[in-house]
Amino acid sequence: MDIKDQQAAQITCLQKNLSAIRKIAGWTSEQLGEKIGVTKQTISNLENGKTQMTLTQYIALRSIIDFEIQTNKGNLVLPQVVEVLLNNYDEYTEEEREKVTENVKTIAATASGGITGAALAAVSAGLLAGILNSPVATATTAAWLAKILKSKGK
């Protein structure tokens, strides 16, 4: 897979899972939109696939997600989900990806129902147990940004 295909795959992966990630972070569409300077309708359109996520939107969203992980240590699940869905997604088979996506949707639905903290972490641990083989070591902003922008220096 060439660099452009890898970029497209990463952007598609975030777009496909944006709704779940947003819910696990505890944000409404409006709150997430405010964080990156777009309307809640733009977030809705991205989540529903009505508009294609741009590289700029991807970078803005990943930055906000990373900032949330760094500053909200009480959300134990978001770093795990980001690690599985975004940082290591390309390491899984298509079948494993589908399972990961479905499990994360279940975690997001649980979070939307008001379950947070240790209770949500327990749900997440059960659903991601076979997927997270090692302790979560969330990639730094520099790592994922370097990966997505790899082709810019060539």
From TrEMBL:
Residues 18-72 form the HTH cro/C1-type domain. This is HTH cro/C1-type domain-containing protein. It holds the Pfam family HTH_3. The lineage of its organism: Bacteria, Bacillati, Bacillota, Bacilli, Lactobacillales. Gene3D superfamilies: lambda repressor-like DNA-binding domains. One of its GO terms (molecular function) is DNA binding. PROSITE patterns: HTH_CROC1.
